[in-house]
Write a structure and sequence with these properties.
Blueprint lengths: L5 E7 L5 H11 L9 E6 L1 H13 L2 H8 L12 E3 L1 E2 L2 E2 L6 H18 L5 E6 L5 H14 L5 E7 L18 E5 L5 E5 L5 E5 L16 H17 L3 E4 L4 E4 L2 E4 L2 H16 L24 H12 L4 H14 L2 H18 L12 E5 L2 E5 L7 E3 L1
Parallel strand pairs: 1-2, 1-6, 2-3, 6-7, 11-16
Antiparallel strand pairs: 4-5, 7-10, 8-9, 11-12, 12-13, 14-15
Helix pairs in contact: 4-5, 7-8, 7-10, 8-9
Pfam families: Cas_NE0113
InterPro entries: CRISPR-assoc_prot_NE0113 (IPR013413), SSO2081-like_dom (IPR019092)
Protein name: CRISPR-associated protein
Length: 379
């Protein structure tokens, strides 16, 4: 149980505000009741007018609170988030532009609410357009905390979207209901059944790194993060032990090869490009660069570190570097490193992310390791 949290209900709604009061009612009569403290409704311009008229002006919300002795629910016109394109409120989601605007508004709103550690979000996807429900559910997947909840409310068919029915009153009354065959019948509200279905959802918050962006950009970032998490292995380099661990496979390399491989990994880690590594090769460089300053100093320093920061070894490596490890020898070492990795790594689907690969760019051949830098750890 989560105590002392402010219970926030967020609903998407269109022309049927009944779904809002039905959700509040269903939460309040649960085996472990949830009493809403604050209500937000995401809707269209037309939906806003209907919600203000019914829930506020006609006092339906106040009647529900009073009849069932619920705590006061904070709700006003300012609690209604109206979908817009630019500054224009939209009547409905009719085209791609309006759909994308709705996606951004809903996602950003949930992201902002989820920043408050003193609240718990209860999100209902029962109302509004299906696209609105989808965006609300997806927003909760991206930003929802472990204690946040997602619901769908199921209402008896005769009472669903009935303009006279907002919740089962304590004192039943008969209202005119439309049956499945199109005919009408007076039915007692005592026969109305409201079921609250809690929907499980993937919680990606804290599992993937997301920045402030549009809904489409968030989807792209999320997919990239998931691809990295699932497909790419982790590489851990222990320089002093001269050991490379790729997931559970251990690779021991001679100092020169370990130095060269670690250098490429270090370049990857230190790259400050904000783009995802899968679509970036800014850390790649030509082998000619490895025979020039300041790369010789970097390699010599790394080589000396492998020998427990031995300055003599580092100096010797630097002095002999251009003669002993010229470009042709570097290609040979890269081939040997890749061959050893291919032989030792047991997962055929992921080992190629660990290889030193070459690409053609700017009229020359550049080399680097394609794995995401967050998967690399050098000790």
């Amino acid at each position: 149980m989560h105590y002392n949290l402010k219970e926030i209900l967020v609903c998407v709604a269109g022309a049927t505000p009944q779904i809002i009061t039905e959700t509040i009612y269903a939460l309040a009569i649960k085996d472990h009741p949830v009493y809403i403290n604050k209500l937000f409704v995401i809707t269209t311009k037309k939906g806003k007018e209907i919600i203000i008229d019914t829930l506020l002006n006609k006092g339906i919300l106040i009647s529900l609170i009073s009849e069932y002795n619920l705590p006061v629910i904070e709700f006003s016109e300012n609690s209604i988030i109206t979908l817009k394109t630019g500054e224009k409120e939209i009547d409905d989601i009719r085209d791609t532009n309006e759909s994308e605007a709705a996606a951004d508004i809903i996602t950003n709103f949930i992201a902002e609410l989820a920043k408050d550690a003193t609240t718990r979000l209860h999100c209902s996807i029962a109302g509004g357009r299906k696209t609105m429900s989808f965006y609300l559910g997806t927003a909760l997947q991206l930003f929802g905390r472990p204690h946040d909840r997602l619901y769908h409310v199921l209402v008896s068919p005769e009472f669903e979207a009935n303009r006279e029915f907002f919740y089962p009153p304590k004192k039943p009354r008969c209202i005119k209901c439309r049956l499945e065959d199109g005919s009408f019948k007076m039915i007692s509200t005592a026969e109305a059944k409201i079921e609250l279905a809690e929907l499980p959802f993937l919680r990606l918050r804290d599992k993937i790194e997301l920045k402030e962006a549009t809904f489409k950009e968030l989807m792209k970032m999320s997919q990239n993060e998931i691809d990295i998490a699932i497909i790419q292995p982790e590489i851990k380099v222990k320089l002093k032990e001269r050991e490379i661990k790729i997931v559970s496979d251990v690779l021991l390399l001679p100092p020169v090869m370990l130095t060269i491989y670690s250098f490429f990994l270090k370049r990857k880690i230190e790259c400050d490009n904000a783009k995802a590594c899968l679509s970036c090769n800014d850390c790649y460089l030509s082998l000619n660069k490895l025979t020039e300053e300041p790369f010789i100093d970097e390699l010599a320093s790394l080589y000396g570190f492998i020998y427990d920061k031995d300055p003599v070894k580092s100096s010797e490596f630097k002095e002999n570097y251009t003669q002993k490890y010229a470009t042709e020898n570097l290609r040979s070492y890269i081939s040997k490193i890749n061959r050893k990795i291919s032989q030792i790594v047991s997962d055929d689907s992921s080992y190629h992310y660990c290889l030193i690969k070459s690409i053609r760019k700017y009229g020359s051949t550049l080399y680097g390791v394609p794995i995401d830098k967050r998967k690399i750890k050098i000790i």
